[in-house]
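ARCHIVE CARD
Drawer: 12
Card no.: 0347
Subject: one protein chain, sequence and derived structure
Cross-reference: see card 0346
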Amino acid sequence: MLMTVDRGATMRRRQGAWAGSAVTGTAAVVAAGLGPVTNYASATVPGWAAHAWVIWPLFAVLVTASIGLVLWSRRLDVAVRPPARLGPVGRSARGQQDSLRSPHVERVRGRETELAELAGMLRRPRGRFAVLCAAGGMGKTTVAAQFASQADAAGWRVFWVRWRDSAELAQQMVQTALACGLPEAELESARAGRASLPDVVWRQLGRARRWLLVLDNADEPQEIGPAGEPLADYRGWIRPHGRGLLVMTSRDSSPQTWGPRARLLPLKPLPTQPASQILVDAAPAAGTAEQARDLAMRLGGLPLALHAAGTYLAGPTSRYRTFTTYRQALEHELPLLLGAEHPDASHSRVARTVVRHTWEVSLDQLAREGNALARPVLRLLAVLAEAPIPLSLITPDLLSAVTGDDVTVPALEAAFAGLHRYGLLDLPYSPGNAGQASRISGPAQVVLHPLIREINAVALAAEASHLATWHRALAVRLTAAVHEVDEQGRTGWPAAVLLAPHLPVLLDLPDPRSATHHRTALSTLAQVLEDAGAFTAARLLHERVLDFESRTLGPQHPDTLTSRNHLANALFGMGEPAEAILLLRQTLEDRNRVLGPAHPDTLISRHDLACALDGTGQHAEAVSLLRQTLADRARVLGVMHPHTLGSRDSLGLALDGMGEHTEAVRLHRQTVDDRIRVLGPEHPLTLLSRHNLASALARQGEHAEAERLLQEALDDHARVLGVMHPHTLGSRDSLGLALEGMGEHAEAVRLHRQTVDDRIRVLGLDHPDTLTSRHNLASALARMGEQEEAVRLLRQTLADRVRVLGPEHPHTVRTLDDLETASAAWRAARRRQTWLRPSRR
């Protein structure tokens, strides 16, 4: 009887089952191993098979071999099985997995510091992960992709995950762990609920080496999960525990969001040189490097805008084909070039790539978080000037007026916090910046990137059906803010400086009924700024008012003449005496003709012109004008009127400049007493009179009394006006001169050095008062015997005074005389040193 071998048994090994009886299978294998292979078996049992001591050991060997084949078949099943069948863990919404390869990018410019920081972390993560954070359009994804490309080229395994939702994140994190060697059995344990899936994945990432995982667009960290797990607890998908490096890109820049193990790398706008190079790379035929630089500066170094502009310029059908024409077109066509709406902006991925919409993604996220006030706050900030904005300007009442809703202080603070967290507004002095400590006590303020401001203004114009409501509410708030800083006195000066750039918007509002009220607000704030010594900010306001009044009222209107006089005084205060004198002469002539020679406003112009002339060394003409003005003011206003006292004080200064020190001292003593009686002992004008009296005493040779009065005046100025006020610095400079007259040269040099540094910081290098302090320092050094440094400073001061004041100015002539004297003393000292040096034989 023939028995056929069941060949299907070996074919079914892949399913792990054997066919046929044990005897049949054994006989077939034995035949294959011990005799000729046939397709039948003899009914006659071979002789060797009759011995049990042969059959049973052989049977045991064959059973062991069959079990091994079954196990090997299961291993083969694992090898050919798809790498991720997560079942209940989560499936891709599209039925397929995204690629884990990083996107391709061209060369990245201007981010060398961030790339170097990431490279260092890649080599030594030290239990940290990196977060590239910034507002939309700053190029976070581009930097991450460039870094991923560098890591891949260096032999690291790179995995790129783009955030969409928690289910897809789970899928791709498992894909990453499997690629890093995660055993199937551990994954099955997570599937069965016996282990946490994030624990399983990160356990494997803790075992594997040399990997980089980028999680892109993680803009909603609270959604990353798993649900209920705060990200900063590091129990979910974001952990610092792997042996590779995790890099996130996100609009959320809050350290509280990411926890203590995150290394935040905030991206700022690109510097001008790399920004312009991006334009040249994209459109090399569009112009020169200098023209690209101008356009890059206009775009504020924003990478998304730079790429948009470069792509536009490179287009063969674009209307504007050069950097220059595109930059010029932005002034009138920004809504079309960068502010155009995209038809697919509802898709987040598209919106992120369009300048007009990229910041709307963040505003939408804030709204989903319950922060609906963030959008109107940003729109309101966009109406203001391109300058730091004091937070005190934005009030709940203002937001209520423009939104029509009740706004609370906590809601407004949450809006500012949310906008800052998503990089839509910044701080002028962010943590870690130099100089922040010195300004920490100043008013809270925020700034907007220029393009964020412009695009949000475009959006507001498109959205608001009643834009006039926004303008009226803002005008009311701005004028109220001016009243507040005016009432606060010195404590309101820092806020006044911040408020100044935003006030001119009042003159742009199309409501003629409020024009006079708004002009008054600008003039009032300008006066506050002059009191604070902030002449540059005051000048800008005066210029805007003068231009507006010249167009609307006419150049000879009394209000226009008043504004011109104000502008001249601001110019003199900021160190431009020639232009100030020209304006003051013109204004005096016009006021004489329009108002008459005895009108109080005409007397103001004559007084101010005399003071400017005296300040430039033209003492004789100043004395003549001031004697006439003092007599007219006493007759028209009265002898104790503050303006009359001002003319008497100024006359004393002019007489002192002419060398008539005794008469100057007499006038100043009288003015000090009268100002104390009329204005009070601590009024700034009273303090100024005390300073002027002490300076006149010093020139008269009464150094001891002058030193005592100047020290008192310095202390009072510092207490009343602040240590850096121009009047305080003037008192310190005069005190140095008095000490020098008393022979205390070392202390005089110390005070003069300090005053030079402070005047440079407050007034600038070329301000006449700064040059005076530098001249006084050089003179004190010369008297102390430090001739070499004195000569160097006098040469520098002479060149600057010739350039700023002119070669014939009395101050310039005095510096030239002192330089010649100091140079002669220095040459004599060098000759003496040569004579005294031992000769060498």
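Annotation on reverse: The first helix runs from residue 8 to 11. The CA atoms of residues 229 and 235 lie 7 Å apart.
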